[in-house]
Amino acid sequence: MLFDSLLAPKYLGWLLDGFVVTVVLSALTCASATALGFVLCLGRIARSPFWSLPVRFFLSLFRNTPLLVQLFFWYFGAAALMPESVLHWLNQPHHWRLPLFGVTWPPFEYVAGFFGLTLYTAAFIAEEFRAGVQGVPPGQARAALALGLRRYQVWLSVIMPQAVRISLPPLLGQYMNAVKNSSLTMAIGLAELSYASRQVETETFKTFQAFGIATLLYIGLIVLIELAGQWIQHRQPAH
Amino acid sequence: MIEIDQVSKWYGSTQVLAECSTRVAKGEVVVICGPSGSGKSTLIKLVNGLESFQSGRITVDGVFVDAPETDLPKLRSRVGMVFQNFELFPHLSVRDNLTLAQIKVLGRSKKEARERGLSLLERVGLQAYAKQYPSQLSGGQQQRVAIARALCMDPICMLFDEPTSALDPEMVNEVLDVMIELAREGMTMMCVTHEMGFAREVADRVIFIDQGVIVEDCHRDDFFGDVAARSERAQQFLSSILSH
Amino acid sequence: MNLDVITDHLDYFLVGAYPHGPLGGAALTLILSVLSALVSGVLGFILGIALAVTRGFAQTSLLLVLSFFRAIPVIMLIFWTYFMLPIVFGINVPGIATVVIALSLIGGAYLAHSVYAGIRSLRQGQWQAAAALGLRPWQVLRYVILPQALPIMTPSFINQWVALIKDTSLAYVIGVGELSFVATQVSNREMVYPTEIFLFVALLYYAICSTLEFFANRVARRYQQAT
To answer: Does the distance separating the beta carbons of C83 and A215 come in below 8 Å?
Structure first.
């Protein structure tokens, strides 16, 4: 084996485990941040300041503070705010047996990491969606209204489909950022890829191999998203 | 002054110019016309080296345009060019548009350059606009400034690439008037244009290009007067352009 | 809410152990930000112009190198520079330099694309018109292309620099005593009130980032009006 001479299988296993955590964490983050970002976008573009003002504040605050500090806040700070019983529950292992598979409640750093990443990513995705909505020419809404469509119909069948198409490339960019940003969760002890590479480096002193493999795995993920984006865009009819 | 000899040009595998040859003598005014995509704009951009070509040779005032040892910027500074879309520099005032190349290329002093710029601005009737920015001017005014900008460099000849085709109809004449005056003063000119009135009035020769080939290259009076002697394609083109 | 923990350690948050020890805290964050902004800006300009004037193989290889820096997490690049720089140069590289180099490389890679896009957004005719007047290629860039492309690029420069300020917090992972590092130190020492500490630190970052955004936008607007 080529890798045997480079890194013992045990350490390759560590890196692989870290990679799996990175993939799962990023995927979950992207999915939930897209949903949350969509809702935030609706609030952001709402006419009533009752909705748009707090959302604006939230977006500005989350976009203009470092993710690392946000993660620390959720990991250390939120824990301090929670009632003792909740904290106790979160720190205990839990396992549910469902018909097909079991679900294990993850340790607290996973919950905090996922939560922090999702809020941070959602703040950026919301702005991308908003840019997409604003990218639809205003004449489109007027034309649809002139045809007799109702306001919600205009949104659902005219504005949204165009806005989604416009915001797709920047959305994929945010997904790439989510993958890269997931590396920050190592600071709160989440054993993802960067954390694993650092551990392998400490144990083996094989700096080049440990970071090299991790770097290649990250690049692989980013390239995968890039390719998926190109595939989706090719399927879309040109206009 | 300008000699184009057996010039061919390809974009990849498509040939855009095929063995084109012609010459423009000092003081001569030549109008180049032809259908869109015929290669006429490409041909004129070869003369000052804005586009490259694969075979043949072009000389301007005895200088080989495509020779490696030719100092192209220096050659270009002696050949004035006016573009279809004016291409004034939007971040510079009219005055600075006129002086930029005089100062940076010819090494004139600021004062000298401004005086020269103002006198040419006066000549195209726009001395009041020196401090304005291009976006504050109409299309016709912008194109007149662009002509003045080229003249500031005291060129030995002028190239016009469809100077009026981006203009609203009511502005065409103010630009043509400047060009006619220039022609009458003896400037050597190569003009890609569909303005046949201009060609009739001041052109010495008319060149008709179709599909990269020079189909007609004859005296103005032959081109317009002896229509029956012209090629079929030229006749078609003329009737399509003159019918309205 | 207990704000004593903030007021008690305010100096430490703002300047670290200075003047009795090394400068740290928010002041070090600012220094890291300014240095990385400058270096990444210069790098971005050089590489962006290089992208605009190269063709074929040279351009493709440059694009590949830039993609590499845009594809890897900042933390990985900090690791690389932290461990590889001393090996390559055979000297001890201070943590601050490591962070500035890593952030500048990534920032520069992003900015290069902004500069390239700004240059490309101009019509080909502007290059031709400037060249037709006899200006040399670098004069065309200097006097005609860049002055027009600059206002187009400013928003991405501002965004990138805000991202840079936030990324300086990653200096934490190699123990550089900037604001985030100092915050965890205080939090670990006191063991209580982490909520207050991290909220305060977040607001400090927020103040720095929004101040930059505010002034940069004002400058950009004035610049755009002038042209």
So the answer is: no
